């Protein structure tokens, strides 16, 4: 499915409303994926670089990586970030020779004011299982989880559970996990813990973040 480029905020919200019913929020998703991809986008003014890094899920070694340069096509509006990033990310994903079993977004899925964050948007358009792992809370409220690795609490919005606040390192700030498409929340959190053996953030996020920033420095081709 191709990305639609809205001209206005109202058009963008209408596209989200059109795509939201296509979400699969029950999964269960891949319990033991062979490959997991991280996606991220770096910016330099009106330039952007989208990166996809596919990792072997058992060794966390990079299997394949792709970067794509582009220009910002939609202004930054909270809740509509996907319209800035999805076109370039779709381009990068389409250039892969390996189809990942799971895609991890540096951002949000259901934990979003319109219940349709980047992970949801990307998942519906690609059909791939996706989850979002945010560094901070975008929406909702939660009690702090216990300090032990693996501890978690519910992230709730308007009385609904939209994600989990997950401790990936003992005594370190938690991350915010939400489902995007074709994955349930239990499976999402198990995968996030598997991807964080040493650091707070998933290795997929760490690798794709470095890759996108490096692409900007090296002036990857921009349209």
- Give the structural class: alpha+beta
Low-confidence stretches: none
Helicity, as a percent range: 25-40%
Overall pLDDT: 94
In this structure, how is the largest beta sheet organized? Answer: 8 strands, mixed
Count the strands? 8
Order of strands in the sheet with the most strands? 3-2-1-4-5-8-7-6
- Give the SSE order as H and E letters: HEEEHEHEEEEHH
N- to C-terminal separation? 22 Å
Folded structure, characterized:
It is a single chain. It is built from 5 helices and 8 strands, in the order H-E-E-E-H-E-H-E-E-E-E-H-H. Helix 2 (82-94) packs parallel to helix 3. It has an 8-stranded mixed β-sheet with strand order 3-2-1-4-5-8-7-6, with helices on both faces. The mean pLDDT is 94. With 223 residues, it is α+β, with helices and mostly antiparallel strands.
Summarize this entry quickly.
By secondary structure, this protein is of the alpha+beta class. It contains 5 helices and 8 strands, in the order αβββαβαββββαα. Helix 3 (118-126) links the parallel strand 4 and strand 5.
């Amino acid at each position: 499915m191709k990305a639609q480029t809205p001209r206005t905020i109202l058009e963008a919200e209408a596209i989200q409303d059109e795509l939201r019913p296509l979400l699969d929020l029950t999964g269960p998703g891949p319990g033991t994926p062979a490959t997991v991809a991280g996606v991220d986008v770096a910016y330099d003014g009106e330039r952007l670089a989208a990166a996809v890094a596919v990792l072997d899920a058992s060794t966390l070694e990079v299997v394949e990586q792709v970067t794509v340069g582009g220009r910002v096509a939609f202004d930054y509006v909270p809740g509509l970030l996907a319209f800035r990033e999805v076109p370039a990310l779709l381009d990068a994903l389409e250039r892969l020779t390996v189809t990942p079993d799971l895609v991890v977004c540096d951002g949000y899925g259901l934990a979003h004011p319109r219940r349709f964050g980047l992970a949801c948007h990307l998942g519906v358009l690609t059909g791939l299982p996706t989850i979002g792992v945010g560094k901070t809370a975008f929406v909702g409220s939660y009690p702090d989880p216990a300090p032990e690795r693996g501890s978690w609490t519910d992230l709730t919005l308007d009385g609904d559970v939209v994600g989990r606040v997950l401790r990936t390192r003992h005594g370190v700030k938690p991350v915010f996990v939400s489902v995007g498409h074709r994955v349930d929340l239990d499976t999402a959190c198990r995968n996030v813990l598997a991807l964080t053996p040493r650091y707070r953030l998933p290795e997929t996020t760490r690798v794709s973040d470095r890759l996108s920033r490096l692409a900007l420095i090296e002036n990857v081709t921009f349209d």
